[in-house]
Amino acid sequence: MLANIKVQQPTETQCAECPIRKMALFKRVPEDQLESTQDHRSSQITFPSRAHLYREGETNDFVYTLFDGCVKLYKTLKNGKIQGMRSASPGDFLGFQGDLDGAMHHGAIALTDTIVCAFPKEDVHRMLCEHKEIASEMIMKNAQMMAFCQEHLLSTGAKIAIERIAFTLIELNHRFKTLLSSKSVGQYERIIELPLTQEDLADAVGLTSIHVNRTLKQLKDKQLISCKKGRISVLNEKELMLLAHFNPDRIHVRNIL
Amino acid sequence: MLANIKVQQPTETQCAECPIRKMALFKRVPEDQLESTQDHRSSQITFPSRAHLYREGETNDFVYTLFDGCVKLYKTLKNGKIQGMRSASPGDFLGFQGDLDGAMHHGAIALTDTIVCAFPKEDVHRMLCEHKEIASEMIMKNAQMMAFCQEHLLSTGAKIAIERIAFTLIELNHRFKTLLSSKSVGQYERIIELPLTQEDLADAVGLTSIHVNRTLKQLKDKQLISCKKGRISVLNEKELMLLAHFNPDRIHVRNIL
DNA sequence: CGGTCCGTTGATTGTCTTCAAGTTGGGTGG
DNA sequence: CCACCCAACTTGAAGACAATCAACGGACCG
Asked: Which residue from A99, A100, A245 is facing B77, i.e. has the nearest CB?
């Protein structure tokens, strides 16, 4: 469970000042009510890279809003094969599933040092009832996750290796780029280093890391990406988007509720 | 068999009498308020087999609760390849996506003659705000759809052909079985004919229909299934579940909100 | 009776996996 | 500082699995 290495922040960010709130679950909670939502929050917790937030098949008492970092959500088969569900980025809501009290349907492992805001699951029901802004936002977040999951499924089921890999890279790159450009008013690193090992990428796209390695080489030869240990960077977004059949409008959707 | 349980309603079913309401979006709306939700409903609509409820890339003014029948939800790539997202069954909520007014991210085509309850999209916002029971149910339905989509992704990304096919068949069979046993208090056809052509199944699992045909032959040889034109039946659930790595508790989850 | 949709089968090709060995680079402890 | 270690990455060769190409059968329908 939480027994992992967790460190309390010396000073916790207050919800009212939270820089990612505009993309998190409390987006629509009026400023003057934030104090009460904050009561639900048990704490900010940090996880070092490669630590588990929770494990597949085990129960976990918290849900999280990802505050900073990158977290791999994945499932496994009994034969050991892994399928990545999503590389979560700041603002993502983690750990919610239909049977809140049951064993987790997937695992979550930090790809970088990570900070999350934790909420006891027992409060989730109350939060959703008391704040219909949260319920609305939950519906929208879920719709976004659904859109992503379906594009991921399309990618995995109907594209060839190089297209799938291009898709996963360009989607994550696009997501981080949007985040960074909204955080820092000015400019941001034009080239982002995605915190993925080739094996993480292999899990995400449903291929072996060996074949991912060979395919990445093709992409490097075409100057579309660059790699170093545990990092992959997108160099040519336009070409990758074409290769990937990537349309940001299908995934990164503006909310309507 | 599916075709038999469908009853064409000469007069439209009233929400208060709706036999599938307990699994639909209005599950929790108090009896005495049903009249107002009914006002939102524009009509029951029937679609013949192989008609589109809506098409990918086009806009559509309604969302639907599937009342009777089976509907294939799918996406396509520009090269023509199709990936099935889900075979929807009665109680499923269709056509909702984050950008309600935008072009549909997926298409929906009837696999059998189908009856849906249609709701104008412009009322969706109001419905969710006015009835928090609907909002809650929406959140739960979405969690279920998410769980399914993720299992489907796991299946597509990490299993071999025979396992994927077994998974898709046993999952759909299990879903229909649950529906039928709750509809008819007494017994139901023990063997269900799933309304899938081999090509539909191929789309769902991300394989060619030729390879699906060969794999189905293996399953027939093992007496696990039987086929006729446009119908596939599960004969040995237990064996198929093992083959498929299928765990109903991961997908067909009891609600908690 | 011809047409069409769905299913079946064979032969061939190609993508991806598996097995098997390296190599590189960062980190650690002597 | 160097030696060592380990995880991540790289490369080659062989084989498995699924796609493609091609042809045919059978049921249903107008």
From this structure: A245
Instruction: Give the minimum alpha-carbon distance from A67 to chain B in angstroms, rounded to a whole number.
Output: 22
pLDDT value for A38: 65
- Nearest 5°: the CA angle B5, B137, A31 is 165
Both B123 and B49 in a single domain?
yes
Q: Is pLDDT of B96 > 60? A: yes
Per-block average pLDDT, block size 10, for chain A (257 residues)?
43 78 71 69 88 97 96 97 98 95 97 95 88 89 97 98 98 94 69 97 98 98 96 97 96 73
Q: Distances from the Cα of A90 to the Cαs of A70, A82, A199, B42, B168, in angstroms?
A: 7, 23, 22, 40, 33
Contact across the interface for A105 and B250, Cβ inside 8 Å? yes
Q: What is the pLDDT of residues B17-47, one digit of tens each?
A: 887 777 667 777 777 777 666 666 668 999 9
CATH number at residue A71: 2.60.120.10
* Domain extent for A123: 7-130
| B185, pLDDT greater than 70 | no
pLDDT value for B189? 64
Q: Give me the number of domains chain A comprises.
A: 2
| pLDDT, position A6 | 43
Residues B180, B92, single domain; the answer is no
Which secondary-structure segment (H or E) carries B141?
helix B132-158
* Separation of alpha carbons A64 and B150, rounded Å: 19
Residue B58 lies in a domain: yes
* Pairs across A and B, CB distance < 8 A: 145
Q: Which two tokens stand for residue A111?
A: 């790809």
pLDDT tens-digit readout, B194-248: 999 999 999 999 999 999 999 999 999 999 999 999 999 999 999 999 999 999 9
Structural domain contains residue A176: yes
Asked if B23 CB < 7 A from strand C, the reply is: no
Q: Which amino acid is at A239?
A: E
Looking at the structure, do residues B123 and B242 belong to the same domain, yes or no? Answer: no
Do A112 and A74 share a structural domain? yes
Strand D and B204 CB separated by under 7 Å: no
User: Searching chain A, which residue's CA lies closest to the CA of residue B126?
Assistant: A257
- The rounded distance, in Å, linking the Cα atoms of B180 and B200 is 22
List the A210 CA – D11 C1' distance (angstroms). Answer: 10
Look at residue B120 and give its three-state secondary structure.
strand
Could you give the CA distance from residue A8 to residue B238 in angstroms, rounded to a whole number?
48
